[in-house]
């Protein structure tokens, strides 16, 4: 999910561009240096979460232990982004087996809610608010799946920091405070929202100390009773009773039957670097499709700030997103031609559709043969060489507005991502996983870890994945520079929720591109706009095998921190 403020067409002089302060080295847009350390590294979107991860690593915990600790604390300190009411995806490099593992910990729709019932209610899309978009929260089960396979410390130790800060309180950071007041204004009439997030009627502001004792108690139950207490115990029964009171469909049965899925990651090679993503129901393979198309152009001869790079990237995105809208869905319910979609041969055919001199107004999905938000991202590496790439989200802002009695967290609204058009891959069905935007990424080179990274921000995420890797491979940037570099986005493509691209959409550029470039893009037919808050956030860990040093980066667009020891 992302919160977007779009401000008209971009007619700004170069003098208005915000630049990073002068530095002795590096790109002019770099905001800080890469953080380097050998024994452990954690990069998250909140300093307290980064510190919690490092504490676990120093105590002998694995990278997975530290990632769970950071994620649990993120749900406390950044409830506008994530929490135990949401879903989780992860990629884990295990040094012992020299293998990359993938976990899909996303939940499914309620058994008792049917497409016929949604149609009877006259809906053309699932709403963002209320009980209807609530699907099973998969985060907690994801923690325990990861911990059982890769954990070293007991789970109560792993969750200790999250429990402490939920009970003792923490000062609310800038970004959280910005969105907090808007959430309470939008959801304040729903049960338990005010008492949980604005106790005493006071919405926390920047620097205010906020406590969530109900969430502390819930996390303590999980630490003591494991995943069963959440999906089959007291917490599950509380959620069931609350949803019934609200006229919802998520039930005890849905929670009790939930399972995560270990999946094989898929990859493509981009100029010698293998980018790994998780297969659908997420959108990770869109990044692979993008890079396959763009590999056909020699970006060593195309300036970073030039209109040609932005034009080619945007036109490739339009093609990929038509496939994304048509094919990406829960593979248990649809045939998805993944191998063909991410093949070089298919990319070559799609590349022929790009006009280098004109922005496309309308494109169609390909015909491959069948062979087969808001969000937080964090990455952690330990002294043994294990690395975790983890992403977790409630989807739109705090979530659905549904806060079960006494539990201290909001349930996700990920069900909003289904299509209600009959006969599509992503059409709603009971006990089906929705299309997902959140995707972790991992890069290997010659079969060894090169970089773990992710970019938050709804549909922007595969675009961000591709831009980051291109910044490093094609333009020689380090991980921090690659994240700080001005980004590009395109809106208006067809979507898995049923919308169809009706015109060329619009291109948005972050501050930092020259007006000469913007003017040329307009000549090519692009509708160019300026947007605030559209481009997500980013964390990364790169590994230098010669020096045996981790290089950590954290996005200046967020309140996060990269730190190591």
From TrEMBL:
GO biological process: one example: glutathione biosynthetic process
Residues bound to L-glutamate: 458
Protein's pathway: Sulfur metabolism; glutathione metabolism
Pfam families per record: G_glu_transpept
Catalytic activity as recorded in UniProt: an N-terminal (5-L-glutamyl)-[peptide] + an alpha-amino acid = 5-L-glutamyl amino acid + an N-terminal L-alpha-aminoacyl-[peptide]; glutathione + H2O = L-cysteinylglycine + L-glutamate; an S-substituted glutathione + H2O = an S-substituted L-cysteinylglycine + L-glutamate
Record-annotated active site: 375
Superkingdom per UniProt: Bacteria
Record-level Gene Ontology MF annotations: glutathione hydrolase activity; leukotriene C4 gamma-glutamyl transferase activity
PTM: Cleaved by autocatalysis into a large and a small subunit.
UniProt-listed Enzyme Commission number(s): 2.3.2.2, 3.4.19.13
Record InterPro entries: GGT-like_enzyme (IPR052896), GGT_lsub (IPR043138), GGT_peptidase (IPR000101), GGT_ssub_C (IPR043137), Ntn_hydrolases_N (IPR029055)
Keywords for this protein: Acyltransferase, Glutathione biosynthesis, Hydrolase, Transferase, Zymogen
Subunit comment: This enzyme consists of two polypeptide chains, which are synthesized in precursor form from a single polypeptide.
Recorded family membership: Belongs to the gamma-glutamyltransferase family.
Protein name: Glutathione hydrolase proenzyme
């Amino acid at each position: 999910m992302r919160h977007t403020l779009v401000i008209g067409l971009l007619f700004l002089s170069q003098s208005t561009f915000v630049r990073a302060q002068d530095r002795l080295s590096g790109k002019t847009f770099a905001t800080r240096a890469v953080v380097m350390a050998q024994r452990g590294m954690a990069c998250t979107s909140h300093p307290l979460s980064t510190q919690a991860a490092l504490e676990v690593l120093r105590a002998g915990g694995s990278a997975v232990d530290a990632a769970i600790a950071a994620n649990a604390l993120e749900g406390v300190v950044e409830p506008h982004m994530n929490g135990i009411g949401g879903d989780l995806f992860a990629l884990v490099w295990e040094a012992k087996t020299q293998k990359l593992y993938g976990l899909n910990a996303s939940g499914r729709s309620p058994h008792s809610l049917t497409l016929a019932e949604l149609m009877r209610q006259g809906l053309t899309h699932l709403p963002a608010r209320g009980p209807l978009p609530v699907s099973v929260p998969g985060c907690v089960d994801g923690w325990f799946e990861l911990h059982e396979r890769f954990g070293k410390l007991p789970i109560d130790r792993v969750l200790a920091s999250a429990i402490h800060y939920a009970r003792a309180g923490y000062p609310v950071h800038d970004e959280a405070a910005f969105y907090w007041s808007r959430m309470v204004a939008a959801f304040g009439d729903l049960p338990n929202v005010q008492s949980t997030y604005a106790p005493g009627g006071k919405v926390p502001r920047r620097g205010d100390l906020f406590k969530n004792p109900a969430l502390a108690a819930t996390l303590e139950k999980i630490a003591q009773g494991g995943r069963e207490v959440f999906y089959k115990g007291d917490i599950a029964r509380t959620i069931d009773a609350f949803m019934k009171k609200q006229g919802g469909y998520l039930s005890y049965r849905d929670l009790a039957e939930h399972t995560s899925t270990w999946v094989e990651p898929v990859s493509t090679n981009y100029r010698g670097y293998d980018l790994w993503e998780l297969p659908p129901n997420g959108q990770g393979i869109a990044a692979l499709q993008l890079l396959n198309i763009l590999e056909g152009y020699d970006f060593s001869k195309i300036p970073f700030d030039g209109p040609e790079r932005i034009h080619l990237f945007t036109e490739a995105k339009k093609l990929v997103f038509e496939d994304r809208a048509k094919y990406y869905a829960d593979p248990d319910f649809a045939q998805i031609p993944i191998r063909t979609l991410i093949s070089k041969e298919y990319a070559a055919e799609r590349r022929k559709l790009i006009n280098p001199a004109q922005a496309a107004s309308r494109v169609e999905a390909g015909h491959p043969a069948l062979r087969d938000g808001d969000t937080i991202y964090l990455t952690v590496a330990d002294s043994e060489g294990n690395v975790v790439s983890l992403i977790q989200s409630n989807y739109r802002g705090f979530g659905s507005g549904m806060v079960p009695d006494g539990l201290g967290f909001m349930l996700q609204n990920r069900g909003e991502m289904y299509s209600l058009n009959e006969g599509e891959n992503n059409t709603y069905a009971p006990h089906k996983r929705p299309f997902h935007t959140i995707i972790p990424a991992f890069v290997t080179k010659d079969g060894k870890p090169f970089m773990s990274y992710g970019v938050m921000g709804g549909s922007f995420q595969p675009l961000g994945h591709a831009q980051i890797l291109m910044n490093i491979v094609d333009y020689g940037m380090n991980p921090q520079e690659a994240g700080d570099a001005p980004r590009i986005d395109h809106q208006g493509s067809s979507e898995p929720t049923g919308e169809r691209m009706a015109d060329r959409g619009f291109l948005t550029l972050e501050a930092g591109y020259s007006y000469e470039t913007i003017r040329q893009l307009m000549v090519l037919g692009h509708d160019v706009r300026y947007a605030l808050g559209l481009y997500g956030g980013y964390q990364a860990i790169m590994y230098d095998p010669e020096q045996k040093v981790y290089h950590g980066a954290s996005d200046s667009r967020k309140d996060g921190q990269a730190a190591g020891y």
